[in-house]
Structure formats: structure tokens, C-alpha cells
Amino acid sequence: MRKIPSLWIGIIGCSMFAIFFFFGPYLPKVDKNVTPHSYVVGPKNNLDFMLPPFSPNKDFLLGSDKKGRDIYSALIMGTRETLTTVLSISVFTFFIAIPLGVAAAHLSFFRYLLQGWNYLFSRLPVFFYIIIVSTIPFFTFSPHRAIWMVGFLIVFELGKVGEVVYKSVKLIQNTSYYEAGILAGSKPIGLWQRYYWPNCYPQWVAYFVQHIGSMLFLLGQLGIFGIFISQTFSQLESPAYSIDNSALVWPMFLFDVLIDFDAFPWVPLFGSLFITLSMFAFISLGEGILEYHSRKHKGLIIQRKPFLFRWRKNNHEFFTKENRGETKTG
Predict the structure, then answer these.
(1) Is the pLDDT reported for residue 318 higher than 90?
(2) CATH code for the domain in which residue 58 is found
(3) Which structural domain range is residue 88 located in?
(4) Is the pLDDT reported for residue 302 higher than 60?
(5) Which residue in 110, 251, 284, 318 has its CB near the most CB atoms, within 10 A?
(6) Alpha-carbon distance 36 to 74, whole Å?
(7) Does residue 1 register a pLDDT over 60?
């Protein structure tokens, strides 16, 4: 385990974001409410008002956005909602894809269904499908837009994940020891417990963790184009309306990135930095998990027993020898 850098990088990176997720509101200099500031008094305190966005300073460690919200506080407080969104997408996708992939390896109907699903939604990147769907007026103005968007992401990702599950199950079915289980009369539940899950779960877990990283990248892409999972409408001075993000998530700092990067570079810079680091952490963790189980399967990693088990075993052997010595003496 010590010789797998990607695993350690992923553990350290994901642990850092886990701290932000659970203990973000209690970290120093974090504004729990992410309060917007329409202005702040300048250093001279003589009607020297400064308008947002504010550049990084002692009051705004990473600067502020156009609404005067502290970027440092917004990124820390937005960790929970951002990771909850991508975790929900990945969990529900795998919850449906695993049974679908296993069924496709046994029944031709599900195999054709998975092939058609994967063929239909794999011709273009998911990014373009989401752009098309999110601009349909019904989904744009729907009060349940967040549910619709998450649902579409699950549908578009389902074929790809199901294909991975299907191929991993087919590899097990092509082995001789699986054929021995079939000849022994193993039922589907027995095949799952003895063959599929023990041999496939490392790959599924690794791919699940990497899928979280890919969803973070996708949300970042959508944020650049102003497409968000949750959004609200506000009327401008003219009869037109503007669409604003209503959730505290990292991609909201990437909207108007081309304009902000020239005038206020700290706004998109730190938002993209958080997305990049989290994506790198999850992808590294997935690679590390896969490499760890691969080395373990090849016998390159020796699995040590828990300390409590070894302690009880040593004490048992010690007292057994002592009792034998007393018996011989008597």
C-alpha cells in the first residue's frame, strides 16, 4: 500500500474535501451564511467605499464575486451541496447499472436493451445531450428542474456504466472455475456471492470513485455555459429575464469566465482550482484502489491481520505453552 502513490494522493485529497464537507462551517474565517456585501469601507474610512468584486485581502482571503460573497466561504460551504449532487448521480447510476449489466450477461433481452441504450447515448458526449435537454422550455421553467436534470444525467450515464459491469461479468463467465460452479448447480444468488461480487467489486468501486470525478468535470463544463442543476429567474429592468444559479455549488464561479478572467481573475481561478483538485483526488483514489487490488491479486501485497486478532493469538499461544510447562512439572 505504501508503494501506490495514486492511492495515497487520493486518500489525502478526498480526506481534505471530507473535512470541508462535514466541518466546513466550523473552520476559521468561514462565513456560514455566505453573506453578500454591496460595498465595504475602504482603508481610509472617509467615505471611501469599495464595490464588489473585492480582490483578495485580509477580510476576503480569496476575494469575492460580483455579489460581494466571500469566495473562500462559498467554496468551503459549497462543498457539501456540490459533492452531494455528484454522489447522488453516481449512486443512483450504479444502483441501476449493476443489475442491468448482470442481467445483460445472462439474458439476451437485457443485452439488446443495454446495447441500444449505450449506442443511443454514447454517440455524443453527455455534455451536448444536457445542453439540448436543459434548453427545452418545459425543463427550463419546471419547478422540479433539479430532479429532471439529475434524472437525465443518470439516464445518459447508465448505458456506459452498465457496459462496464457487463464486460466485467463476462470476463468471470469465461473462466474455468465459473464453469465448475455452473456444473455444481449454483443458483444466481450463489453465483453473485461466490463469483461476481468477490471478483468484480474492486473494479466497480474504483470506477464508481472515478465516476464522481467525471461528474465534477461535467458540472464544471456546464457552469461555463451557465447551465446549472438548480436555477431561478429574476426580472431585469427591461421585460427580459435573467437565469441565476440558486444552489451554492463550485461551478457558479465559472459563469462568465471569459469576462471575469480578464477583469477579476480570482473569481474563476479559485472555483476551477477546487473542481480540478477534487476531480484529481477522486480519479487518483479510483486508480489507487484498482492498482491495490491488482497487486493484491498477484500476491504482491500481503494482507496483515488486525492487531487485536494478532494480540489475542500471541497471548493464546503464550498461555498454552505456560500451561503445558506446568503440566510437565506436575
Answers:
(1) no
(2) 1.10.3720.10
(3) 5-300
(4) no
(5) 251
(6) 10
(7) no
Q: Give a yes or no: residue 305 inside a domain.
A: no
For 15-41, write each residue's pLDDT tens digit: 999 999 999 999 999 999 999 988 887
Per the structure, how many domains does the chain have?
Answer: 1
Alpha carbon distance 1, 222 (integer Å): 36
Q: Examine residue 17 and state whether it is found in any structural domain, yes or no.
A: yes
Q: Residues, the chain, total?
A: 330
* Cell, residue 139: 425543463
**Region of residue 37 (phi > 0: left; psi between -120 and 50: alpha; otherwise: beta):** beta
Task: Note the pLDDT tens digit of each residue in 170-202.
Answer: 988 888 877 777 777 778 788 888 888 888 899
- Using alpha carbons, list the distances in angstroms from residue 217 to 89, 127, 132, 213: 13, 10, 18, 6
Full-model pTM: 0.86
Q: Which among 217, 204, 213, 206 is positioned nearest to 94, based on CA atoms?
A: 204
Helix residue ranges per DSSP H, the chain:
5-23, 71-104, 108-121, 126-134, 137-140, 145-173, 176-183, 188-191, 197-224, 257-263, 266-297, 307-329
CA atoms within 13 A on the CB side of 288: 21
Rounded percentage of the chain residues whose pLDDT exceeds 70:
84
Q: Is residue 138 a part of any domain in this protein? A: yes
Residue 294 near residue 303 (C-beta atoms within 8 A): no
